């Protein structure tokens, strides 16, 4: 549990070491003596960093070591701040202060290292921590460590789950029966099933319940728990003793190979059931798997883990399944909570029900959290005030309500993280409870803070996405908004995990959160990162008690009349302002003075312009204005030559954009009639651009509109030949057409092409070469069978939106063949077509379909039996059908609806089709329907 403090310290230390290396480069022409001092600093701090990383593997640290670590952390922050101040000054001002600065800090490092003897004691400190029994003698500390405290750490926190009575369990019946059906399915080949989920969700309990119910059916059985640092030989020995039902002492013989051979020999012709509980890495599983012989006796292996990739690895290549365990429902959560305290909900005093409901909600369906809170509340009186007091503490950190067991179990997942992921997870404590965190916003903030380091040739954003996915993989954050590519677009943090990381971040002065009116914050240290939530009850913050001048990150949610002034934060790297309505332009005054700033996000609809001083932010990398109403950016924006991400909401393309050669993402930009030809030309020079999203508003009425469209098409041609991956073009009403089919070179590297407003007379030849394209939205003169055949050959296409513009052209019944669109998941076909048929085996991955069908033509085409082949779409989950009723009889429309409904009822997912009727006034009605309409009209007249 001490690893968090180390990760915080090493996080800033790694960034500092990089900057010390940069200072010794040719860009900074420093005196040789200064360079020697910098080299000394770098060497000594590198030694300190190595020690900090070693301490990260220790569970218990001496108070003296903790104090030393705190000094190193704060000193690293201060040194980095001073270096940043120096590096950002004009060159002529650097020489005067840099020598004195480094002499001061060199001396401080020498004193610190000398006092603790770090260089000579790295190995000694490691031994002292590992060998707990010698801790007092080796550290020579006056205050003895309480042996009882350390003994608690050796108890397996999963023991209680193994011995819980079935009658005490709630909400386990359905998952238990489902799991048993998966295990007891009659298959004779070996089957491996993995249960995966967050710590405290009940994986061990579920596995144990299934084990108790069906293990008697097998010839032999075993239930073995694996620790984070397992002894494989001991595990194999326990397995052998359990399957043979003999004393471990008589079976634990020989080395690993002998144990594996003994297990394989014993299990060869037996039907066995083995549970391997809580696996943390694939190496351990691979070792255990060698001993579990694959036979045809109907054997079963059940694995539990918190890590999704390990769950999948355990199942493969066997006939296996990953079972993802979900949180308890609200009803089951309430039942468990009340049962633990009162016996049933009926026995809960009325004055406590609303408070109890709040406590249950904050537990987020986590059984461990509910049981822990119930165990705490059972010790309290029935006084409402005492319950409210405990409820208010939830959200201020696990330690505030003494949830030691829960903290210990959740901390297992945290402690298993590498250092860089610990720091990134802690950073999520900047966000309020239940906040949906956007993945790309989070990654950009990590980058601005210096947490992301490039490896394996990836760029910073892709590396940050890997960090994000690994946190999901380890069940520490919950994915939301899953895209077609399987990538989560955002995440939430479970309340209990949030409490864990908040408590750790507070302890190490990593983040200072403000927002709960019950919390009294008095910080004696420099604030390093500040998060203020003004959205709840009035937040009172005494700025006089906080040292804000060294804060690196400031997040403000909501608005207050007494809002903190951003001019107090001279060391900011990250500024995120999110207000629903009240944040005004005047609140941004002083933002140009934040010359360290790398990330600026403003989310407030009343912001209509930026101050001209924005151009002074020479180190700014991200400028996110998507939730503002800024239509014209200041001219100084072109001075931001390090800007990588410029995200706006309809702001005009500006002159000088060609100066911003670092731009990778330019999204939300608009091109109006006032836009200059020069800016369109400059757009084509942004050869590092990967994402471009623009709206085209130049109308045909502009005198040189044809020239402007040609310039834009030429600039786009240059971009798609370089690094552009994502291109979105929206045409405003009445705007001129853009000739994209005139591109000279095929856009091989494009992954998304979204151009619903640009009409192609025919499918361009270069589209067949777009092997990386996974999303396509285009408009063609007319959708024909040839068009479908061409697009159906794109190997990576997942999402297709196809619009037909022709109205008077002859139409044909289209069909999707089983050799086309093998990967397609979403298909939207809009415009005048006769209909669409699906052959057996067509679009096997299709999950969502939106189509338009002409009822009269469909009926005449199929005559006796209307069959569009929808029943062949086995993966379909969502269906939208627009029925063009023009020229069709009422019964023809109803027959079409009935046929499609019948077809969807035959599908495995039983999607419910949604029908939308167009042109109903054009339906052909027989005499009976005409008479019915007349009667309805007469009835309306009589009512009047």
TrEMBL record:
NB-ARC domain residues are: 177-343
What InterPro entries does its record include? Apaf_helical, Disease_R_plants, LRR_dom_sf, LRR_R13L4/SHOC2-like, NB-ARC, P-loop_NTPase, RX-like_CC, Rx_N
Output the Pfam families linked to this UniProt entry. Answer: LRR_14 (PF23598), NB-ARC (PF00931), Rx_N (PF18052), WHD_DRP (PF23559)
Q: Which Gene Ontology biological process is one annotated for this entry?
A: innate immune response-activating signaling pathway
Give the signal peptide as a residue range, or say none if absent.
none
Q: Which Gene3D superfamilies match?
A: 1.20.5.4130, Helical domain of apoptotic protease-activating factors (1.10.8.430), P-loop containing nucleotide triphosphate hydrolases (3.40.50.300), Ribonuclease Inhibitor (3.80.10.10), Winged helix-like DNA-binding domain superfamily/Winged helix DNA-binding domain (1.10.10.10)
- Annotated Gene Ontology MF terms? ADP binding
Q: Any keyword Nucleotide-binding?
A: yes
The residues covered by the Disease resistance R13L4/SHOC-2-like LRR domain are 550-912
User: In this protein, which residues make up the domain named Disease resistance N-terminal?
Assistant: 12-96
| Residues annotated as domain Disease resistance protein winged helix | 430-501
Which family does the entry's similarity section mention? Answer: Belongs to the disease resistance NB-LRR family.
According to UniProt, the name of this protein is Uncharacterized protein
Q: Which organism is it from?
A: Digitaria exilis
């Amino acid at each position: 549990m001490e690893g968090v403090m180390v990760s915080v310290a090493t996080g800033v230390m790694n960034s500092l070491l990089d900057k010390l290396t940069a200072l010794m480069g040719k860009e900074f022409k420093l005196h040789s003596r200064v360079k020697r001092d910098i080299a000394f600093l770098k060497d000594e701090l590198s030694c300190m960093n190595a020690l900090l990383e070693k301490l990260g593997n220790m569970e218990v640290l001496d108070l003296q070591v903790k104090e030393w670590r705190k000094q190193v952390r704060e000193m690293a922050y201060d040194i980095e701040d001073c270096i940043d101040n120096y590096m950002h000054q004009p060159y002529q001002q650097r020489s005067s202060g840099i020598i004195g600065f480094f002499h001061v800090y060199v001396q401080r490092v020498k004193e610190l290292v000398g006092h603790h003897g770090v260089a000579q004691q790295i190995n000694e400190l490691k031994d002292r921590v590992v060998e707990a029994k010698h801790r007092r003698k080796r550290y020579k500390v006056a205050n003895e460590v309480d042996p009882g405290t350390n003994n608690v750490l050796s108890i397996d926190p999963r023991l209680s789950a193994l011995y819980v009575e079935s009658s005490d369990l709630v909400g386990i019946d359905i998952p238990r029966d489902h799991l048993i059906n998966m295990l007891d399915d009659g298959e004779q080949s070996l089957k491996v099933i993995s249960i995966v989920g967050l710590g405290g969700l009940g994986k061990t309990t579920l596995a144990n319940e299934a084990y108790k119910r069906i293990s008697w059916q097998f010839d032999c059985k075993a239930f073995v728990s694996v620790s984070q640092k397992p002894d494989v030989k001991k595990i194999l020995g326990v397995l052998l003793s359990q399957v043979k039902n003999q004393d471990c002492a008589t079976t634990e013989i020989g080395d690993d190979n002998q144990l594996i051979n003994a297990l394989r020999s014993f299990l060869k012709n037996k039907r066995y059931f083995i549970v391997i509980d809580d696996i943390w890495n694939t190496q351990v599983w691979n070792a255990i798997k060698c001993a579990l012989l694959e036979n045809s006796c109907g054997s079963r292996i059940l694995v539990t883990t918190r890590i999704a990739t390990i769950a999948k690895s355990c199942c493969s290549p066997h006939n296996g399944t990953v079972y993802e365990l979900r949180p308890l429902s609200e009803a089951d959560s309430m039942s468990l909570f009340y049962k633990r305290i009162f016996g049933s909900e009926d026995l809960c005093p009325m004055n406590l029900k609303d408070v109890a409901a709040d406590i249950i909600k904050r537990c987020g369906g986590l059984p461990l959290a509910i049981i822990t809170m119930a165990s705490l509340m059972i010790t309290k009186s029935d006084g409402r005030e005492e319950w409210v007091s405990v409820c208010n503490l939830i959200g201020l950190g696990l330690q505030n309500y003494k949830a030691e067991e829960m903290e210990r179990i959740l901390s297992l997942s945290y402690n298993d993280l590498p250092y860089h992921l610990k720091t990134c997870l802690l950073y999520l404590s900047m966000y309020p409870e239940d906040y949906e965190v956007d993945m790309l916003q989070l990654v950009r903030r990590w980058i601005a803070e210096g947490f992301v380091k490039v490896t394996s040739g990836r760029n910073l954003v892709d590396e940050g996405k890997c960090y994000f996915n690994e946190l999901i993989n380890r069940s520490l954050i919950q994915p939301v908004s899953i895209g077609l590519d399987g990538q989560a677009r955002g995440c939430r943090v479970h309340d209990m995990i949030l409490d864990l990381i908040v408590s750790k971040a507070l302890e190490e002065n990593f983040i200072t959160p403000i927002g709960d009116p019950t919390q009294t914050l008095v910080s004696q240290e420099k604030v390093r990162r500040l998060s203020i939530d003004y959205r709840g009850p009035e937040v009172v913050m005494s700025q006089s008690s906080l040292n804000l001048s060294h804060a690196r990150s400031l997040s403000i949610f909501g608005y207050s009349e007494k809002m903190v002034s951003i001019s107090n934060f001279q060391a900011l790297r990250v500024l995120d302002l999110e207000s629903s309505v009240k944040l005004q332009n005047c609140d941004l005054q002083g933002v140009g003075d934040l010359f360290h700033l790398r990330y600026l996000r403003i989310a407030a609809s009343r912001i209509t312009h930026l101050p001209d001083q924005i151009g002074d932010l020479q180190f700014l990398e991200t400028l996110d204005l998507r939730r503002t109403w800024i239509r014209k950016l200041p001219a100084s924006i072109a001075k931001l030559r390090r800007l990588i991400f410029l995200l706006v909401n309809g702001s005009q393309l500006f002159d000088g954009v060609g100066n911003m050669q670092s731009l990778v993402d330019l999204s939300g930009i608009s091109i109006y009639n006032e836009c200059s030809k020069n800016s369109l030309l400059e757009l084509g020079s942004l050869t590092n651009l990967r994402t471009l999203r623009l709206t085209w508003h130049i109308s045909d009425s502009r005198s040189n509109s044809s020239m402007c469209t040609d310039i834009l098409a030429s600039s786009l041609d240059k971009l798609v030949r370089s690094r552009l991956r994502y291109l979105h073009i929206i045409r405003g009403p009445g705007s001129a057409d853009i000739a994209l089919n005139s591109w000279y070179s095929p856009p091989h590297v494009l992954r998304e092409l979204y151009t619903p407003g640009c009409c192609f007379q025919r499918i361009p030849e270069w589209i067949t070469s777009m092997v990386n394209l996974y999303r396509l939205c285009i408009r063609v003169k007319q959708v024909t069978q040839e068009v479908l055949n061409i697009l159906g050959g794109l190997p990576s296409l997942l999402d297709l939106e196809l619009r037909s513009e022709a109205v008077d052209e002859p139409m044909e019944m289209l069909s999707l063949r089983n050799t086309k669109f093998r990967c397609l998941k979403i298909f939207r076909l809009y415009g005048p077509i006769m209909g669409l048929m699906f052959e057996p085996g067509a679009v096997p991955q299709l999950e969502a379909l939106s189509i338009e069908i002409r009822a009269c033509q469909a009926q005449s085409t199929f005559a006796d039996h209307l069959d569009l082949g929808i029943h062949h779409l086995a993966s379909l989950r969502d269906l939208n059908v627009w029925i063009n009723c023009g020229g069709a009889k009422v019964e023809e429309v109803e027959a079409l609806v009935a046929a499609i409904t019948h077809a969807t009822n035959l599908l495995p997912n039983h999607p419910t089709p949604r029908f939308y009727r167009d042109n109903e006034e054009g339906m052909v009605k027989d005499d009976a329907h005409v008479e019915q309409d007349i009667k309805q009209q007469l009835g309306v007249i009589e009512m009047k």
